[in-house]
Amino acid sequence: MLVALRAALIRLGAAVTVGVWRLGYGARFFVYLIVHSGTAFRRFRLTMREIYFAGVLSLIIILVSGLFVGMVLALQGYETLQRYGSSEALGVLVALSLVRELGPVVAGLLFASRAGSAITAEIGLMKATEQLSAMEMMAVDPVARVVAPRFWGGVISMPVLAALFSAMGIFGGYLVGVVLIGVDEGAFWSQMQAAVDVRNDILNGVIKSVVFGVAVTLIAVFEGYDAPPTAEGVSGATTRTVVTSSLAILALDFVLTALMFTGGA
Amino acid sequence: MADPHIAVIEDLSFAYDRRPVLHGIGLKIPRGKVVAVMGQSGCGKTTLLRIIAAALMPTRGRARVLGRDTGTLDRDGLYALRRRMGMLFQFGALFTDMSVFDNVAFQMREHTNLPEDAIRDLVLLKLEAVGLRGAAQRMPGELSGGMARRVALARAIALDPQLILYDEPFTGLDPIALGVIARLVRQLNDSLGATSIIVTHDVAETLPLVDYVYFMAEGRVIAEGTADQVRRSGVAFVEQFVSGAIDGPVPFHYPAAGYEADLGFAAGA
């Protein structure tokens, strides 16, 4: 009994130590990445390529998902609002839900699954096939040449994708609310325009999406760069990217929402 | 007077964590020569190559490469040293998102301010040297193993290095590709006035090609000399390695308990 308890405590201690060590390693990696980001901006063509892969190629899934989320929001919102005779407020409900929460969060989750996993797999495979070592041997820093452009490409893409998700969602809400159900079009748009505040709602939504972009892309590039150079190592790192990014988005969303929208808001 | 040796390894030991791999290695690589480091898989020869490339630092002893003690170099010093080296990885390690042309042009674009016209001419020159000028626009995924190795060789010599390192350059190649790579190693070394270090276990292709050989076993140098000298060294391991005999100092059977005992026929059983 005591032996089993001791073994369990040793395992727990080892897991905590490894977790803290990895967190510290990740933080050092982040600082190194920021310090060596010059190439990503001096040769912006490299970052543009990554914006294409992480951002442009994610457009379809983001736009289609945004449309459906907006349509569902309108259906569910109308159902509740009409009970209180406030169906004209449907535009406000759809817009605020998307701009403040669903846009950044759902776009972030989709971005983590679509682009984050791809970034991890690509960097992990480059490591497994010695491409990163070859770069090192050519006196080219792989963090500056490979990791930094992918990081900044993701960070730049994420807010744009979140904004497009929200815009498409509002359009989906309009289609269902106004075109399908018959909510007054003037009320739908005018109430939305009056209720949505640029600073409190839109800017805070943009800040959220930037924070999620940094978190997801950092996790993705770190997991890829740190992946064991084997098939199992790369597949495990890809899975960890999706799981860790998703949890990070939800946890960060709670913290940011608490800071932005409570207490005096 | 210039140092006659491009790399000097003195009393060098190395361990991965606590697992010792190299024990008191000493070797000298003369300028302008093609030198092979041979031995079984796992004997530490690739680790030694990575120490010469300053990708790993020795646990003890020192490695002096191109006149610099690798253990004393900072990041900039390390990169300055590596610009004077080229390395061919075991499976080429070509950048899979770039064409053959861009792979060879990579270092020129990263380290020089040459105009694109000049880079184009130089890349075609390097590709011509390995016989693949016609494949310049292909992607690495479209190349055979031998072609990929030749492109990697063209990339390794892109900046006319003084020292070229080869990590198992003959692994997994068909006889024609193998012969082509072997000929190119010698030809490029001599025409560039470079020095080459080949880490390999391919006896038949390597011994006729090189000027000097170091044989390694269990992290130690056990024989050295010209190809003829090592053949006549009288070291049992070298003889077994060169002849490919299945039994000798390296036994056929992995150490195990008695066969009869394992089958349950031991006395008293």
Order of helices and strands of chain A: HHHHHHHHHH
Characterize the largest beta sheet of chain B: strand count, sense, and whether it forms a barrel: 6 strands, mixed
Please estimate the helix content of chain B: 25-40%
Number of strands of chain A: 0
Query: In what range is the share of β-strand residues of chain B?
Result: 15-25%
Q: Report how far the terminal alpha carbons of chain A are from each other.
A: 54 Å
Distance between the termini of chain B: 74 Å
Shape of chain B: globular
Number of strands of chain B: 10
> How many independent structural domains of chain B?
1
- From the alpha-carbon coordinates, what is the Rg of chain A to the nearest angstrom? 22 Å
- Low-confidence residue ranges of chain B: none
Q: Structural class of the secondary structure composition of chain A?
A: mainly alpha
Can you summarize the main beta sheet of chain A?
A: none
Q: What is the multimeric organization of the chains shown? A: heterodimer
Shape of chain A: globular
- CATH class of chain B reads Alpha Beta
Order of helices and strands of chain B: EEEHEEHEHHHEHEHEEHHH
Arithmetic mean of pLDDT of chain A: 93
Question: Briefly, what is this?
Answer:
The complex is a heterodimer of chains A (265) and B (269). Chain A is mostly helical and 265 residues long. Chain A has ten helices and no strands.
